[in-house]
Amino acid sequence: MAKRVFLIVLDSFGAGEMPDAADFGDRGANTLRSCYNTGKLNVPNMAKLGLFNIDGVAVGEKEKAPNGAFLRLSELSKGKDTTTGHWEIAGMISEKAFPTFPDGFPNEIIGEFERRTGRKTLCNKPYSGTKVIADYGEEHMKTGALIVYTSADSVFQIAAHESVVPVETLYEYCRTAREILCGDYAVGRVIARPFEGEYPFVRTPRRHDFSLVPPKNTMLDILTANGLETIGIGKIYDIFAGKGVKTAEREIGNAADMKITSEYQAKDWNGLCFTNLVDFDMQYGHRRDPAGYTNALNEFDIWLGGFMKEMKSDDVLIITADHGCDPCHSGTDHTREYIPVLIYGEKIKPANLGTKAGFCSIAATILDILGVNGDIDGESFAGNIIKV
Question: What residue numbers bound the domain in which 194 lies?
Fold first, then answer.
């Protein structure tokens, strides 16, 4: 058995449309293909692991002798958002989709939110996060009204200028919204979106997500109960509302979170390091920036080469995604795609595992790799990749 697993989620790095993509308005979506088609994709380390050998990947040069195990997974949960994807990766299928509000939030929700915060609201409709502060930022500055908006995802987002609403106060407003948004209105996440400066305003790195608590145990709870470490880097603590996360590093951004992951690689511990690299999604996927997305993949691959060289004999690395966000697709929202899975380590034998159902098989596999039993959704594929 391995001592440590590093699970790295390249947020939104989908590997092609799922069979039901049309039901989500995502026919033809393929995040990997869109990045490859820029002509600038240069990811030799992921290619060597088998990225271009994965089922359905029709771009790139296939590796003749991959040094990792690889597969693609379909999502069983009803959704294509961050919370649903991560919860399923951690071993919990969401049978019911989180509610979305394409026409904005109903009056009873907005009215109660305004009453409890003592502030009026602006917008209240689906909007791009950068465009909403451009269109409503100046009115917010003049009136103090909070900018409330949503997207195709199940989110209630609150934007405010840090000079008008201090960040800690904005977080309190988000906690208030989280209390209000329950039952039929229980969105997956309430998100604080602070911004600063003068027009054109810029968002600050002090974003904070307030998720629902997972309704049942995930691999994080099981590992914690068995005395193993669970380290959440980036958005992980927020996505799971802290449930099952022993140690949280809540920096947001690829560069910072890759650096922190490397720092934990150099430490002595036993268990799981679960990292989310959000820039792929937040900075490039939603903004439909294929060149930026591709460059971020190239930067990750450079970091990956160094990380792999420093891995210990009882380490296992798993690279995956939580949904797609094709930077060349219409709109600005996530896309319903397969996720790639790349697995590497001295204890891992190279293998093409094809296509499997359920992101949750990742959690089942991690428990097996770490020698822990637990009742979660998902079927382990550890028996197909662990060297005897």
Answer: 107-211
